[in-house]
Design brief:
- This protein is an all-beta fold and 302 residues long.
- 0% of the residues lie in helices and 43% in strands.
- It contains no helices and 25 strands.
- The strands form 6 sheets. Strands 1-22-21-20-19 form a 5-stranded antiparallel sheet, with no helix packed on it.
- A hairpin with a 4-residue loop joins strand 8 and strand 9.
- It is globular, with a radius of gyration of 18 Å.
């Protein structure tokens, strides 16, 4: 991917509101009455990795510019959380409030404390560089799952040829001492998320154009891989009713049975990722191209 220089250069960015007139499909009243997709911030280069903290503030990345930004749920302002983010992509908060990031500049998994200081959690697998951690989800017991597809980056100083034997899903144990492969049979795993009880995990194989669901055992092993829908995704999230939100061409919503029940168009090309944020967790926060968007929902995030 070729990256242009950013238009956004300030520390704070006020929310810019703009209605998107494309037709929204919502068969089950998931979107709040009268709600429209609104532009919450713009002027970035490529937004990714949104995740909300306990207060509903949403952190997201601008990977080409190597920054992590924070959208304030109270004021709507956007600030820089980390100016050197290791080219962070997908992110998730652990129980201690540390921001776990897939930082693929050096093909690693990082942890940021609340002041924005980074530490490396995973630097390799089997003594060889990972392809480039892409998205991460943390189970209730603290075990971490992350996807590791190969996307050759212009900023790499490494040989772009994979040092691993494939593109896998990995599992980092709760004590963070053991890293193992959780699934080695996917073509190009990308988005990942799980249910609140940690019993089910969804993984999008964007290379195969499919999304799978797994059963998670007590020791972290994934079993019973089952096709959920014949659609791949970049990022993905769940709401409190168990509906799954996939990204790519806007946001597509599926119910627990894998039936398509909604679609939110985002008219900026590729929609990369999505999460629920805001003080009440009823704002669907969307990263897409050079901007971030939000739409009010009748459901909360998982």
């Amino acid at each position: 991917m070729h990256y242009l220089r950013p238009v956004f250069t300030g520390i704070l960015l006020l929310a810019v509101f703009a209605r998107v007139t494309a037709q929204v499909r919502d068969e089950h009243g998931l979107i709040a009455a009268g709600a429209h997709l609104q532009t919450l911030g713009t002027g970035f280069e490529f937004t990714e990795g949104p995740v909300a903290d306990k207060k509903g503030n949403v952190y997201f990345t601008d990977q080409p510019n190597n920054r992590i930004h924070k959208w304030d749920a109270r004021t709507g302002k956007i600030s820089v959380f980390a100016a050197q983010a290791g080219r962070a992509n997908g992110m998730y908060f652990d129980k201690k409030g540390h921001l776990i990031t897939c930082s693929d500049e050096s093909n690693q998994l990082w942890s940021f404390d609340k002041r924005g200081k980074a530490a490396v959690l995973v630097k390799d697998f089997g003594g060889r560089l990972l392809n480039g951690p892409n998205d991460v989800w943390i189970a209730p017991d603290g075990g971490m799952y992350f996807t590791d597809p190969l996307y050759k980056r212009s900023y790499w100083k490494r040989d772009p040829v994979s040092q691993q034997d494939g593109e896998h899903v990995y599992y980092l144990s709760p004590d963070r001492h053991s890293l193992t492969k959780a699934d080695s049979l996917l073509r190009k795993p990308n988005g990942i998320t799980g249910t609140r009880d940690g019993k089910k995990i969804f993984v999008a194989d964007i290379g195969a154009g499919k999304t799978y669901v797994y059963t998670r055992s007590g020791n972290g092993t994934l079993t019973g891989r089952t096709l959920f829908v014949s659609q791949g995704s970049d990022g993905l999230t769940l709401d409190e009713k168990g509906n799954l939100y996939l990204t790519g061409k806007g946001v597509t919503i599926y119910n627990k049975s894998g039936e398509k029940i909604g679609h939110i168009p985002v008219g900026t090309g590729w929609t990369a990722n999505v999460c629920f944020g805001g003080k009440d967790r009823q704002l669907l926060f969307i990263t897409s191209g050079t901007a971030v968007y939000g739409i009010r929902m009748n459901v909360k995030g998982m």
